[in-house]
Design goal:
43% of the residues lie in helices and 10% in strands. The chain is of the alpha/beta class. The strands form two sheets. It has a five-stranded mixed beta sheet with strand order 3-2-4-1-5, with helices on both faces. β6 and β7 form a beta hairpin. α1 runs antiparallel to α2. The longest helix has 17 residues, at 55-71.
Length: 229
């Protein structure tokens, strides 16, 4: 993929926009092509596979796809999001498309071994031009940047990083309960003592956003990692 002069294809402009959705990768071949797609040849269709299907995810994805369509009106953007299993169903569908030699143009994946594995197999192309145009080498968090690299080149563009061991606190509630804010020497014992004080004050000491099974399972993994090292 190059970015000299005006030789930026509709495909590449669209890919840059979709890359802002998650860790997105660009297929070496797509839309049923039997040979690598060209970075300097216009495309009339861009198939995007992700598992962004919940209410807020789908809304965010649609905003980006709509913006992409406005800047590339001649490109038919196909939202091929797959529902179910927090991405597990999408991975299965993607594997079948890759096996059939008919991958989507762009798809969502995870940083690290996943995107590097696709790069090692030669089924995705590097997005150096996207990084160069947005100066991502200089601005991206170094650990995340390394997780996208293979052979010295980047193969995906993330929009953020999820963490499963994050706790949020209500400073006003803690103040009313006489619990000091966490400091550098914060320990589990201090945390548990604080919970008891909050409970004694008549407030709920700790809650989990458990509308789905994801938060409890994430909490279990965090506790297991803390115990096992």
């Amino acid at each position: 993929m190059t970015k000299e002069g005006n030789a930026v294809s509709r495909r590449r402009r669209a890919v840059a926009a979709v890359a802002a959705v998650a860790v997105m990768v660009l297929a070496v071949a797509g839309c049923g092509a039997q040979k690598p797609t060209s970075a300097t040849t216009d495309t009339k269709q861009l198939e995007v596979v992700s598992w962004w299907t919940s209410g807020s995810e789908a809304a965010a994805l649609n905003v980006l796809l709509s913006a992409m369509h406005q800047t590339n009106p001649n490109v038919d953007v196909v939202n091929a999001a797959v529902t179910g299993g927090a991405g597990s169903q999408a991975v299965v569908a993607l594997a079948k498309q890759l096996q059939d030699g008919n991958p989507p143009d762009v798809w969502q994946t995870f940083a690290g071994k996943s995107v590097q594995g696709y790069a090692d197999r030669g089924v995705i192309r590097d997005v150096t031009s996207v990084f160069t145009g947005s100066d991502l080498h200089a601005t991206m968090q170094p650990t995340i940047l390394r997780s996208l690299m293979h052979g010295g080149k980047p193969y995906g563009v993330p929009t953020g990083a999820h963490r499963s061991n994050m706790l949020w606190l209500n400073a006003e509630l803690l103040h009313r309960a006489g619990v000091p804010l966490p400091s550098g020497d914060y320990t589990l014992a201090v945390f548990l003592d604080g919970l008891q004080k909050v409970k004694a004050s008549g407030a709920t000491p700790c809650v989990s956003a458990a509308r789905t099974g994801s938060p409890p399972s994430s909490c279990s993994r965090t506790c297991y990692s803390a115990r096992s090292g």
